[in-house]
């Protein structure tokens, strides 16, 4: 596969209608919000989860496209598989450790063994070679700093989330039914954002890509996942979510031809009527300033 030879910086614009894009478990699962400005937030972890889910659903059983951090996974089991695949017995006597050093702990890799385990994990798992991972638990496959990094997403304008009372016309047990005097009705709460347009930023480093084996084909699959990740992640709680724009700046070199922030500043997103609450994507304008674009920069409008 072709090595990644260009730096990329990109902007993600996605929206939510009558849903909760990323609940905060420390606040009763209400939508995350910047308490000082009122802007809505979606964590980078949430966005990467959707990418992982897309890859897992669409690339299942394809070599090199497994997912390390997936639902109900036991991470140490996957790490152990790396050393089994490399035929490294971590239970050998201390003096038989591969690099000749005394093994500090039985069942735990050391020295060059860690690097072999790390390399196998990068080769096998898409999310490890893309986002990186901490794999120093269990048998110890070290740590990987991924070439692709994402920021929190922040709503373009402040949001006002709403809480709704909901009713379930059933109870879970006979004892609960007796307390309800035969009505068999339970009450709950549901939080939604009426509408919010969110903006996140991302970075792709070809230097780190060389260390993890992240190739051009992996990048293309990543961009494809951005376009489709909300389509395969529907739920009543998240309402109607859609990726509206993916704008990537491709640099003509590995080091880059301009600073990321100067390129991001060229993507202008503004409400059409600032005094009116937004309720659709058409209530905003999105423009990319092309005048004076630094030499060597290519703008790619992927969605």
TrEMBL record:
Domain of life assignment = Bacteria
Task: Please give the name of this protein.
Answer: Type I-C CRISPR-associated protein Cas7/Csd2
One Pfam match: Cas_Cas7
Which InterPro entries does the entry mention? Cas7_Csh2/Csh2, CRISPR-assoc_prot_Cas7/Csd2
Look up the signal peptide feature and give its range. none
Q: Which organism is it from?
A: Myxococcus landrumensis
């Amino acid at each position: 596969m072709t090595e990644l030879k260009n730096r990329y910086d990109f902007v993600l614009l996605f929206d939510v209608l009558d849903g909760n894009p990323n609940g905060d478990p420390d606040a009763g699962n209400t939508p995350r919000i910047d308490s000082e400005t009122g802007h809505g937030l979606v964590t980078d972890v949430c966005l990467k989860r959707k990418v992982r889910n897309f890859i897992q659903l669409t690339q299942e059983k394809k070599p090199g496209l497994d997912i390390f951090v997936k639902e109900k996974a036991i991470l140490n089991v996957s790490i152990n598989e790396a050393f089994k695949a490399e035929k490294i017995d971590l239970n050998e006597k201390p003096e038989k450790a591969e690099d000749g050093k005394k093994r500090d702990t039985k069942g735990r890799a050391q020295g060059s063994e860690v690097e072999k385990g790390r390399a196998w994990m990068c080769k096998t798992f898409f999310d490890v070679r893309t986002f990186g991972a901490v794999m120093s638990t269990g048998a110890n496959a070290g740590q990987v700093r991924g070439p692709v990094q994402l920021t929190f997403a922040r709503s373009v304008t402040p949001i006002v989330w709403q809480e709704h009372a909901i009713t379930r016309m059933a109870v879970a047990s006979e004892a609960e039914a007796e307390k309800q005097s035969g009505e068999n009705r339970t009450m709950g709460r549901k939080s939604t954002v009426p509408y919010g347009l969110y903006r996140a930023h991302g970075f792709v480093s070809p230097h780190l890509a060389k260390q993890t084996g992240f190739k051009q084909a992996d990048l293309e699959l990543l961009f494809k996942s951005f376009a489709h990740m909300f389509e395969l992640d529907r739920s009543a709680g998240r309402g109607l979510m859609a990726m509206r724009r993916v704008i990537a700046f491709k640099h003509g070199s590995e080091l880059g031809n301009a600073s990321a922030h100067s390129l991001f500043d060229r993507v202008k997103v503004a409400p059409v009527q600032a005094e009116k609450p937004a309720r659709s994507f058409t209530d905003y304008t999105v423009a990319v300033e092309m005048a004076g674009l630094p030499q060597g920069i290519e703008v790619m409008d992927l969605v």
